Amino acid sequence: MNHIRIHGVVSGRVQGVSYRYSMxxxxxxxxxxxxxxxxxxxxxxxxxxxxxxAVETLxxxxxxxxxxxxxxxxxxxxxxxxxxxxxxxxx
Length: 91
Fold this sequence. Notes:
Blueprint: E1 3-13, H1 19-30, E2 33-38, E3 44-51, H2 52-62, E4 70-79, E5 87-89
Parallel strand pairs: 2-5
Antiparallel strand pairs: 1-3, 1-4, 2-3
């Protein structure tokens, strides 16, 4: 199956460093759909759906994040494809 969806949680210094904005921009560049949001405990949560290679590229980006982020860990799990067409930030 070439079209996948994953759920991810990113830990580290990932809030207040434009992580969500940067992930949204990167996902759109890659043609990946889904969403990203801050969690109350300081982590960032996201779901990404699209071509397997593009989603894997986004996860690799998530492990680095934008310039001022410090990513300690990214945990991902597989999800059922939902057919999303765009990537956006949830609040």
